[in-house]
């Protein structure tokens, strides 16, 4: 049964979808700190009731545990979990940022971290997850390898272009030198050609330009 609203009551605000963003995967060294970013998009202004929640699921486990919650302007860290002394809230709710910092990483911290955000009345959205991988030494990422390959290819292309223009220059120089020929003087006359004196007397030549 539907009940009419009492006089002076306003209808509830319509909720719209909220979109949450995190990174896809983070790599970090054992003993270092890592920032896990979380932000959201909502069509509404930031509510005073905005909330952020983080959960953690270790590798090899099916269960997630709550490790952090932000509400009412206060940040709460689980005081019994694996990050009780190593988690810090570094976000800025006023800028839709709910990022956290995990300190002094250990190999046992490998796992999936999931962020959920609410900006009432926008409370419907899919949480976003980021996987943390802790290494003793960071591996070479695929992007670095791809960049190196692209650099080598570009270097080869530049070398080919340089060789091409160098060959064109040498060929043009050869053609220019062949465009001028020397012929011996006949009967002491160049017969309309330009006479070019040589260092040795009697060996002057006539120079003609070929067209």
Automatic annotation (TrEMBL):
Positions of the Ig-like domain: 12-131
Gene3D superfamilies documented for this protein: Immunoglobulins
Record keywords, A-Z: Disulfide bond, Glycoprotein, Immunoglobulin domain, Membrane, Signal, Transmembrane, Transmembrane helix
Positions of transmembrane segments: 144-167
PROSITE patterns xref list: IG_LIKE (PS50835)
Ribonucleoprotein in keyword set: no
Example GO biological process: myelination
Protein name (database record): Myelin protein zero
Broad class of the protein's primary localization: membrane
InterPro entries reported for this sequence: Ig-like_dom, Ig-like_dom_sf, Ig-like_fold, Ig_sub, Ig_V-set, Myelin_P0-rel
Source organism of the structure: Nothobranchius furzeri (Turquoise killifish)
Compartments, as annotated in UniProt: Membrane
GO cellular component: plasma membrane
Membrane topology annotation: Single-pass type I membrane protein
Source taxon at top rank: Eukaryota
Family of the protein in this entry: Belongs to the myelin P0 protein family.
